[in-house]
Structure formats: C-alpha cells, structure tokens
C-alpha cells in the first residue's frame, strides 16, 4: 500500500497537474494525460504501471481501490482529498472521484510498429477518426480482440484525450499506437511488411463474411460520412458489410468490432 | 412541396410543441416525440411518413431538405424560422436546425410482435439497457441488419427519447418495437413462438463463432456491468465472444452488431 498524501488546499502545488482539467484538456499537457474513473485506473495500473505518475482520489474511495493501489510501483504519490477539495482542484464536479496523471509513451513510427509484430497479426489503420467516442470505441475493440497495434493518420483525434481514454476503458493507454507520418505511403508501407490492406467501405464488392483472413491484415477505417480517400481505396482490397433495406452504414466503432471478430474467429 | 409557414414569434402557439425542448424531454410528451437533424428527419419521412405531425426548420436549410419535404404526406405543416427564433423556441442553440414532432406508434405487445414475423426471423430482447447511447446504437444495428423487431423490458430507457433517436439515426422510429409486460415469462414466450433464446454473456461456454444460426433467433442483451439476470440465463442458451488477455467485455451496442452480423452472414 503506498503512502497517502492528504490534500486540504486546492492550491497545493503537489496537485498542480490536476488543476482546471477541462481548460487544460484543450491546450494539451506536453507528454502527460489525465485518466479518470475506477475502471480506467484499474486498467492503467494493470497494463502500464510504469507510466502512472500520480493519483488524486476521493478519500471515500480508498477501500474500493485497495487492489489498484497495491498494484502501483513504489514511490507513486497518491493524493487524497475530500469531494469539495477535489471539485475545487478539477474545476468541475468530479463524480468519478478518481484521477491519475500518466506519461504518454514515446512516439512510435508506423514502420517500427509493423516491424515489431509477429507473423500472424492484425493492425487497425484509422484515417480521419476525429470523434472521441468513435476513437475510444475502436480502441476498446482493439484491446478486446487483441490487435497488435493501431496506426493513426494526422486527422485522427488524440487517443490520450480524457474522453477517448474513458470510452476505451483505458485501452488507449496500453494498445501499441503509432502515427502515420505526413505524406507517408500507407499502402506501400503495409505491403513492405506483408500486410494486406483491407479498406472497409459500404460500396465494396467483396463482403466481410466471405473474406478468408490473411495472415497479416491491416484494417483501414475512415470517418463516417467521408469514409476513406479514393487514393487509398484504389490500392487496397475493399471489403463491405451488406446493409438491409437501404440503410446507409454502421457506426465505425461497431464496424471495427465486427471486422475484428471475423478476422479472429472466422471459420475457414 | 408543402406550404411553408413562416414563424417570427417564438411564442406562436403553432410551434408550442417545440418549446423548451430539454425541459420537456424530462417530463415526456404523451405519445409524441421530437426528432432532430437532417439525417434523422430523412429516415423518419422515408420510413414512417404517416407519423410525422409537423416540422420546424431553419429557413437556410430549405434547399437542402427539398427531397425530404417532397416526401411528406399532404397537409403536414412545415414551420420555418430564422436561427434566433428557433433558438428562442427550443430554449437552447439548435445547431442542427431541423426538428420534427412525431407520433409514437401504438404500443405493441411482445406476443403480437413475435406472432407477426416470418418463419426465419431475428429479434433482439433488451433487458435493462438504460443508456441512450447504447440503446440508440443497438437500434442502429437492428436496422442495418434488418432485424424483425426489438423487445424491451421495463428497465430500458425510452427509444423515443431525443438522444436515442439521434444515435440510432432514426432507426428507433421505424424498427418494430414491443414492450415486455411486467412478470411476463420471456423464455416461455419465445419458446412458444419457436424462438431460440440466445443470451449473450462474457462467461458463456459456447462461442458465437461456433453458433449455427437457428431459423428463429432471439438475441438477449443486458446492461454492461450487471448483464442478464441469472433467472434468464439459466433457461437460455448462453453465447459468448471470447476476449483477449483478460479484457472484460465489449460495449453492448458493439456486441449487438457482431451478433447480428454473424446471424445474418455466418457460413454454414
């Protein structure tokens, strides 16, 4: 059990990283992020304990958090405050009552990510996913189905944004994630590493259900509405999920779940 | 093209149904509901035109809505206002700029719903889905995969709540929906109609991927966290989706999409 540090003054410099959370969500935190809630914190401590910098928790929750606190590396400060002090620090009513500051992992290139996976692998490539709910939902599915990594283009939102972390139930903190460099030729990069590029698109001619999963699959997902660019689609294998009676399309996070389930469990 | 009724006074009695939307979301609307946004309105007019009671739209959007307005039955009033008047009526900034008042369909019993479907059918049974995002997401998938109906127990939230409609992209307005009467024996009801009850549960021994879809399938989904009750699970066939490395579970809407895709397209 770590030492608990009582905090009575919202302006205590030891909790400066937790101050005015929403304002600082907008300007960013230079290599740090805030995670919130018991479930997310449990996932964070389980999956990436070395990146937990500190905790700030409501004193009432210490008992429920026993197992999580026991999993912390030695020396991680755990600040404890009452609800009123917590709210004053955060700048809003913090009904989840549990916060952590974490360090983002070192940036990873898509090249390095692809070079590091095994002979059978699934990666997701997200292009223009700018909605935190969708991004978080996709990462949740990525963790649930054990994907080997997620590659984000420059038009995706930040997976370390508080809401994306929350929706992913902490999966954005542990799933290996890489950025696509501007101008990088994605399809060539994937081909070089033996990945088949599967571009999900409502207008595709091949259906997911008929797809025999390749040994190395890269699932390309674009934003709802615009979808993937023609440049990418023209050079990838397009795969669709047929819809009933003229329904337009599935939510992109749901699509990721359906595709990952198929890739992992499809009968051959 | 219907006649357009200009509205200049937020207190005009002709738009009383649109007043103070958020407050009235909470108290309910006695058989009516509010739908918002172009995509939802298009789905509503396409799928259930006879239940559109009136529209209130931002004058700037008339051109974009041409096809939708042309699909309205004769006599449906279309009120047109500027953004400031719209905002004053609704009581908040209405950036979607398009509202409709609709009539809920007549309540349908689960018995009647099941009696009315064909020999091959899929229905969803939702138990305790109290989150509008999840409920809306499930209905979106239900429409996308053409399910024959959705049965809700008394612990589900209202599918005609504004947010549920929006997340479902209007699917809650058209997918046949029935309520489960309090104390009704769901599993017996399903069996009487030849439906196999498939209870989705992380702890199940059978996996979805191995499931040979029955001719009539009822997919039972409970809330994330508590899940389905033991009483129901003990009498149903439990089906699970295996998770990677100790990940707890999928989002329930995503689960519905994966299950429906399998039931519809699984190779035999």
From TrEMBL, chains A, B:
Residues 122-261 form the tRNA/rRNA methyltransferase SpoU type domain. The keyword Methyltransferase applies. Gene3D superfamilies: 3.30.1330.30, 3.40.1280.10. InterPro entries: Alpha/beta_knot_MTases, Ribosomal_eL30-like_sf, rRNA_Methyltransferase, SpoU_MeTrfase, tRNA_m1G_MTases_N. It comes from the Bacteria. Keywords: Methyltransferase, Transferase. PANTHER family: RRNA METHYLASE, RRNA METHYLTRANSFERASE 3. This is tRNA G18 (Ribose-2'-O)-methylase SpoU. It comes from Caulobacter rhizosphaerae. The lineage of its organism: Bacteria, Pseudomonadati, Pseudomonadota, Alphaproteobacteria, Caulobacterales.
């Amino acid at each position: 059990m770590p030492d608990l540090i009582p905090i009575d003054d919202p302006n205590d410099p030891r909790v400066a990283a937790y101050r005015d959370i929403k304002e600082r969500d907008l300007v960013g935190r230079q290599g740090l992020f805030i995670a919130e809630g018991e479930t997310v914190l449990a996932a964070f401590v389980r999956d990436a304990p070395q990146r937990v910098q500190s905790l700030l928790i409501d004193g009432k929750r210490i008992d429920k958090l026993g197992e999580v606190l026991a999993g912390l590396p030695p020396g991680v400060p755990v600040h404890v405050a009452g609800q009123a002090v917590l709210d004053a620090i955060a700048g809003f009513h913090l009904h989840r009552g549990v916060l952590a500051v974490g360090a983002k992992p070192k940036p990873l290139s898509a090249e390095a990510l692809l070079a590091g996976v095994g002979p059978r692998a699934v990666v997701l490539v997200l292009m223009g996913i700018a909605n935190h709910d969708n991004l978080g939902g996709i990462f949740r599915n990525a963790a649930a189905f054990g994907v080997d990594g997620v590659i984000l283009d420059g038009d995706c939102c930040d997976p370390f944004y508080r809401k994306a972390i929350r929706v992913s139930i902490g999966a954005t903190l542990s799933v290996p994630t890489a950025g696509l460099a501007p101008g990088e030729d994605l399809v060539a990069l994937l081909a070089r590493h033996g990945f088949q590029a599967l571009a999900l698109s409502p207008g595709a001619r091949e259906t997911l259900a008929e797809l025999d999963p390749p040994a190395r699959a890269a699932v390309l997902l674009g934003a709802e509405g615009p979808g993937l660019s023609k440049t990418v689609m023209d050079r990838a294998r397009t795969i669709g999920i047929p819809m009933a009676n003229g329904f337009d399309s599935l939510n992109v996070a749901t699509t990721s779940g359906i595709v990952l389930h198929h890739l992992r469990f499809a009968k051959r």
